[in-house]
Each structure stands twice: as structure tokens, then as C-alpha cells.
Amino acid sequence: MKFSPLLLFTALFAVLSAPLLAASTDSEYMADMTFTLRTAVAEGKLVYIGQGGEIDGQVNPTLRVPEDTLVQINMINGDGALHDVVAEAFEARSDRVSGEGSSSVLIFRTGKAGEFFYWCSVPGHRAAGMEGRILVGEPGAEARASIESDDLSHSPMDLPPAIGSRSAQNVSVSLKTTEKVGHLADGTRYKFWTFNDQIPGPFVRVRQGDRVTVELHNDKASTMIHSVDFHAVTGPGGGAEVTQVAPGKTESFAFLALKPGLYVYHCATPMVAHHITNGMYGLILVEPPGGLPKVDKEFYVMQGELYTTEPHGQRGELSFSLDKMLDEQPEYYVFNGATDALTKTHRMEAKVGETVRIFFGVGGPNATSSFHVIGEIFDRVYHEGSLSGEPLKDVQTTSVAPGGTTMVEFQVDYPGRYLLVDHALSRMERGLVGFLDVSGEPDHDIFEPHE
């Protein structure tokens, strides 16, 4: 074999330069900030859970990073399904991996300040919950407004005490209609129309035989006429005919609470469905003489739907779509006015052995609910809000029409997180879920997980 100086030079150069090339490559991708996310099933959704540092244990944590920073996201597969993580704004995408314990890495460099997002691109996984925010630097005023907005959701624990055994009396109810931009979903806001700055409106509680005076004031800043129709009222329009109130004006009427039951009230100004979908609904309970049986916990929950011009998931301030409402194609379903009202904002809690009562109504305006609590059985269901007859017993799921109600009662016997849902379960992906957290000692005769 002939000796080749060129071949020897090439070989020596490759050997000597290899460590230098490796060092250069490591330096190029030495991230300024590193985050670790583990995929999991939690809160009834597919999610990322933060591992380590400030995001440890957080579901779909917000990643806060400076401008012009090299960021690395390590994704660990914690549930065995196929997953990845992408950050489209930075043209970055990890490999898809399956199998519990497998991992993948995403690396990108940030630019200017703003709000961006990461998610799983496997079909259906983003809609099922695998999405989080990336906040770069200090967002400007517009970005901050898209993240932060007024909370108009009504706490399910905010309702008056039981009437009890008192006699009939005169009762006054004051309502104020307002039009306010409020929080709808993460990074999303919407101009709601409300009773008393809340969705749903106040829980009104009276006794059969009470004479109720209703005063309705329309805020002077409103752009619309508003009214109120109580389904518990016997009279023209349930009161709506005499409460078509212009901005800055007040109207009132009185009615006799003739029938016991749980009833919806709502705005009934044309176009009525438009006013309802924007948040103008609530419940009035007319207790029978002697009141309701005593329970340990009472909650107030209402379901509604919103029709936005923008597709589900778009950030910023959304606008109303008349066409989607008329076609009955909502982009969002909500409990108590927001997609996260009963998962993040308000915490429903009970203890093992306690009895729970849920006053549930559907504002609508269009969708019927198949109300269900995952992991529980309703001991008693007062179907369609009727309180004068015997309740149904041992019920799994109950149908509630738009403009309708139900009252359910059950004892909680085992600790854990129980999900409030509409059993048309695809609606969970559009925001319709709530949590009831039950604490206490487990009874393994009732339920025993096998390791």
C-alpha cells in the first residue's frame, strides 16, 4: 500500500479537532433556562406537570423567561401514550415519544416580550388539555390585558342561608344589569352582560307565600335595554313586560310566590337568546313551608354556552357571533361563567360523611345538560326543580333542559376529587368541568384501589 500524505493529514485533523467540535456544539446548545415537564392524566384531562424548581407539581405550568434567552424543555412521558411538545411561535418541535419513561427535548431562543404557548401536537391532545403558556420578558399592555381580566364568575358557595320554618313575609330583591369585560378562559376575555356583576346572577331564596318586590336597575353605562323574567312568577312575561329598562333607568314589580320549586330567571329583551348567552341568567328557590331538609353543604351551579366569532382557544378579547348562536354551534361551555370557575377560581369542598346539595340550572340558551358527578350517585334528584313530589332515588345522570333546573342530594363516602360534568363529554374539551374535593379517611370496604 502506498503512503498518502493527504490521507494522513485528513485523519490527524479529524482526531485532533473532534473534541473542539464537540465543545462548540455543547456551547451552542447550552440552555440559559431549562424546564422539565412530565405528561400525565390529571383533573380529568391530559396535561403536562412541572418537575423541579418553581413549577414543581403545577399543571400546565406557565414558563417565565427573559427576552433573547436559549430555553430547553425536557419532556418526560409519564403516562405511556404518544406525546410531544411544540412551541410554534419559535418554530420549535420535539420528537414524538411513547412508552412510560421515554423523553424528548425542545430547544428554542426567545425574542421580544410577549405571551406564547406550548402544547402537544398529537391530534386531540391540545383540546384535551395539554397546553401551557410561555411568558417572555414583561408583556406589554395588550398582552397583559389578554392574560388578566375581571373575574365575574359566581362562587358556588355564595348563596343565602336556608329559609327554615319562618312564616310568609314581604321580601325585596334588587338587581342591577351591567355590561363588563371579564375572564372567560386562560388568556381569553369576553364582554359579558350580567345581573349584579356575576354569572350566574344572585341566588334568590324565598318562601312559598312570600310577596316579593323586584327592583331592576340598568346601569347608565349599558348600551342595551335589559329586563328580567322569573320563571317563578305568574304574570305577563314573568315580569319581563314591565321591566324593559333603558340605561340609567329603574323599573319594579311585585309577585306572590305561589308554587314551591327551583326556577330559572333570565333577561327577556329581544334578541332574548343573545342576552342569555352573554350571562344574564340565575336561579330563584321558592322553599315550601317548613323549608328543605337540612344538609351539610349547599352549592349553586349553572351551565351556559357562548358563541364567539373566534375559534375556541384563540386568545385576547372575543366577540359574539350571531350566526353561530342561530346555528346552535357554541365555542365555549361554562359552569358559573368561565371555563375554570369551578376548577381554579372557586374550590368546592366537603368531608367524608357529609351530605351535599347542588342547586343546578341551565341558562343555555340552547343546550340541554346531562348533569353527572363522576364517581358519585345522586341519592335524591328533584327532577325539573319540582319540590312538591317525592324525589327520584339512586340516579346516575339527570337531564336538565335550557331554562330548567334540578336539585340533587348525596352523601360523600370516600375521599378524592369528583368531577362535575355534562355527560355530553366532548363539552369538557370546551371548558365544561368542575371539581368537588372530598377530604377524610378512606373506607376500603367502599372502594379499594389495588396496587
Task: Fill in the keyword field for this structure.
451 residues, mainly beta, Immunoglobulin-like, 2 domains, 6-stranded mixed sheet, 5-stranded mixed sheet, 5 helices, 29 strands, globular
Explain what you see.
The chain is mainly beta and 451 residues long. The protein has two domains: 28-147, Immunoglobulin-like (Sandwich); 149-215 and 251-451, Immunoglobulin-like (Sandwich). Helix content is 10%, strand content 39%. A hairpin with a 2-residue loop joins strand 10 (170-185) and strand 11 (188-195). It holds the Pfam family Cu-oxidase_3. Residues 184-289, 330-436 form the Plastocyanin-like domain.
Main beta-sheet annotation: 6 strands, mixed
Here the CATH topology of the largest domain equals Immunoglobulin-like
Helix/strand class: mainly beta
| Number of separate helices | 5
How many structural domains does the protein architecture include? 2
* Overall outline: globular
Radius of gyration over all CA atoms, rounded: 28 Å
